[in-house]
Amino acid sequence: MAEKIKPNIFYVGAKDPDRRLFDELIPLPYGTTYNAYLIKGSDKTALIDTVDPAKRDVLFKHLDQLGVDRIDYVISNHAEQDHSGSIPHVLEKYPEAKVVTNEKCKGMLMDLLHIEEEKFLVVEDGSSLSLGDKTLEFMIAPWVHWPETMFTYLKQDKILFTCDYLGSHYSFDDLYVTDQQLIYENAKRYYAEIMMPFANLAKKHLDKVQQLELDIIAPSHGQIYNHYDFILEAYRDWTSDKVKNEVVLAYVSMHGSTKEMVDHFKGELENRGITVKTFNLTGADIGELAMATVDAATIALATPTVLAGPHPAAVYAAYLIKALRPKTRYLALFGSYGWGGKTKEIIADLVSTLKAEILEPVIIKGLPREEDFNLLDNLAAEIKTKHDQLD
Predict the structure, then answer these.
(1) Contact 76/121 with Cβ under 8 angstroms?
(2) Under 8 Å CB-to-CB from 255, ≥6 apart: which residues?
């Protein structure tokens, strides 16, 4: 049902607890939500974002429960279809409504949803829109996580609608956050998958958010924050340059040679007081892998050689790491081969755009011998030395 947030402000979004994959890529162990909000001003009514088209009936049910017979403005903070996809259906039901968004988002909505140009009201950074006794103010916030993203601030009620920013994939029973640790973990996973490639901009927008007078932060995925200091502090940490004395060790092994190297290397790191988070790439949850990279000082990738190159699972992991752009300081590579190949060169090329230092790889022939384990010992020692020198 629709839920009251403050007088004349309501949650009208949809929960999707059974969804298990987002963008055909991201695992959703706790489902997700598509949050939309209705604001009834003394003169005008505004809908903040919509829902995924598959859940539009839920949105309309909530609007009907509230007796909404007119919507004047549909605020689109972000063009991605899980938030914008029901806008055409809203416009069909409420033909008097205008879509309020920025110029870039307008163009994207016209392309993605074929909304006619005359249906738009374009706003700029700092623009405001009166609903009578309530005023909406708009903050352009590009690249958290698309170039057209913006935030909407309800001035009188001190509510900031941030769309994807500060959100989490979590289908809730309670509208507000009740278990901060649970939401911290889900928000960190969400940050790693969605926001981390744009960490510098996420940090910049955080500064803007913290300048506002706020009672509530209302994202478009997950629960609403009526006590929000913990999520702002978490983002401050995640977007900082600080890393932890941790190694994320992602590996794949076909016939056991690489796995022997992994087990030995992991033990050597742990003997040196380094926390190791290990992921077998043949079955790892990529969300957990992404989340682990947020803080780790080093990422290590271990792979056998397949047809003269790295195992496809290792290629995928390297590509993912490149795309997510974690703040890790060092990258390590090791593995084995049978007759030859260019594993080292291929992986190095895949991650070449990262700022991390690539340590000397350990690529051996066949089952590891004592001298090969010695090379891994040296690599572990080098990582220990570099971690000890971290700021």
Answers:
(1) no
(2) 304
